[in-house]
């Protein structure tokens, strides 16, 4: 069984997850460290005004109204963006709808994505407690040493960057000063489900490589797809209203040393399912204009229709019998309000079971692959503040969901390892 620790949303906070086979995990979400100025926290009105600035004047009135409506329906109150007025003034081509700006965007991202990822990873490693030398694997989802015979791995996941070679996984090792023998895995341009998928991959690496410690990082930024609005593409408007920037990191390992390593959750079991005939429901296409998104309005309903079957399949595979869905804690990827509403109804969950996912959506927007780990961090912090008996709102078992293109559903079963470890 893999275990991991989870740092919190700010760079100075972090913590651990523990999985069934005791794989150590540390998760850190970073919301401040990568922002050059505090004004890059955008409340919804300010975010709409920024979009207005980059939209052609004759289009502004109707599109601003549509953007405001989308923003109100989203329940997002604010988000964090690397982009600001100064960056847009220096790169005006990015403000023109569908202008060929891939080179400009990629040049910025190639520098900034590794920086954001390294900042989140630093916080995760600090809370985890082990030395950098102990990290054996790096999983990069574009996104210190070990005291025992640990081997460090790195996984990096990111939808918004990663096309350059060498990629963010290489630069993270350089920025953190990790050993050149760290084994790296990069997951680029996969979509929002990767926050859950990375835990599945990290679990497999940790459980099948004795002494491994896997540093997993997810990082996303709007730099690749921020643009002006156009009434011909309303799915672009929805995406512009929904997404925010974020970075998170965890450390995962087996056979934890409780004297030196913080543990929060066990990763008990993880599965992935494709919903048949839905390959075109969510699309992210890399073109000369940057990354463009397309999605159909039926996405929340399609997820809800298949969620119970996917959940039960995961539980059957784990050998754990749980019939009362409200006896679990839930970390559901906050892909949007409609998705959370539909999942809540389909599983028969009490409204409070979606509290953490809804708060992350309201405070940060949809941060793609980084979102699910923000939700876990919110769960443990709220649980501590409320005096709950566990990090999971008083529950022993919990489920993490990731959704994305495919349509893909990743489901992870978690179990509490420690009560409060931060």
TrEMBL record:
It comes from Triticum turgidum subsp. durum (Durum wheat). The keyword 4Fe-4S does not apply. Pfam families: Chal_sti_synt_C (PF02797), Chal_sti_synt_N (PF00195). The active site is at residue 192. Belongs to the thiolase-like superfamily. Chalcone/stilbene synthases family. The keyword Acyltransferase applies. InterPro entries: Chalcone/stilbene_synt_C (IPR012328), Chalcone/stilbene_synt_N (IPR001099), Chalcone/stilbene_synthase_AS (IPR018088), Polyketide_synthase_type-III (IPR011141), Thiolase-like (IPR016039). Residues 54-255 form the Chalcone/stilbene synthase N-terminal domain. This is Chalcone synthase. Keywords: Acyltransferase, Transferase.
């Amino acid at each position: 069984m893999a275990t991991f620790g989870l740092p919190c949303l700010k760079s100075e906070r972090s913590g651990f997850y523990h999985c069934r086979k005791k794989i150590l995990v540390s998760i850190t979400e970073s919301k401040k460290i990568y922002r050059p100025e505090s004004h890059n926290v955008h409340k919804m009105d300010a975010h709409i005004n920024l979009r207005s600035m980059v939209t052609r004047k004759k289009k502004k009135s109707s599109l601003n109204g549509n953007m405001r409506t989308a923003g109100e329906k989203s329940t997002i109150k604010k988000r964090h963006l690397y982009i600001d007025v100064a960056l847009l003034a220096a790169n005006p081509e990015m403000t023109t709808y569908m202008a060929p700006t891939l080179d400009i965007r990629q040049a910025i991202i190639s520098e900034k994505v590794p920086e954001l990822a390294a900042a989140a990873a630093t916080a995760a490693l600090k809370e985890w407690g082990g030395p950098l030398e102990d990290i054996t694997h790096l999983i990069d989802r574009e996104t210190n040493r070990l005291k025992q015979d640990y081997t460090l791995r790195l996984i990096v996941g990111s939808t918004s960057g990663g096309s350059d070679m060498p990629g963010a996984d290489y630069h993270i090792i350089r920025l953190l000063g990790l050993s050149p023998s760290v084994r790296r895995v990069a997951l680029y341009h996969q979509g929002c489900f990767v926050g859950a998928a990375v835990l599945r991959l990290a679990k497999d690496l940790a459980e099948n490589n004795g002494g491994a410690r896997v540093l997993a990082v997810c990082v996303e930024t709007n730099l690749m797809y921020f643009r002006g609005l156009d009434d011909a593409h309303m799915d672009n408007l929805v995406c512009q209203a929904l997404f925010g920037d974020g970075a998170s990191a965890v450390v995962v390992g087996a056979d934890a040393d409780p004297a030196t390593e913080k543990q929060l959750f066990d990763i008990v079991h993880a599965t992935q399912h494709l919903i048949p005939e839905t390959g075109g429901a969510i699309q992210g296409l890399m073109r000369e204009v940057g990354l463009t998104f397309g999605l159909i309005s039926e996405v929340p309903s399609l997820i809800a229709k298949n969620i119970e079957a996917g959940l039960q399949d995961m539980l059957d595979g784990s050998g754990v019998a749980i019939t009362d869905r409200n006896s679990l804690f839930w970390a559901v990827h906050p892909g949007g309000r409609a998705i959370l509403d539909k999942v809540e109804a389909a599983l028969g969950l009490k409204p409070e079971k979606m509290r953490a996912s809804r708060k992350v959506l309201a405070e940060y927007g949809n941060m793609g692959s980084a979102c699910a780990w923000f939700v876990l961090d919110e769960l443990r912090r709220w649980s501590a503040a409320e005096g709950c008996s566990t990090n999971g709102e008083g529950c022993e078992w919990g489920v993490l969901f990731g959704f994305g293109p495919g349509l893909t559903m990743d489901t992870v079963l978690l179990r509490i390892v420690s009560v409060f470890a931060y």
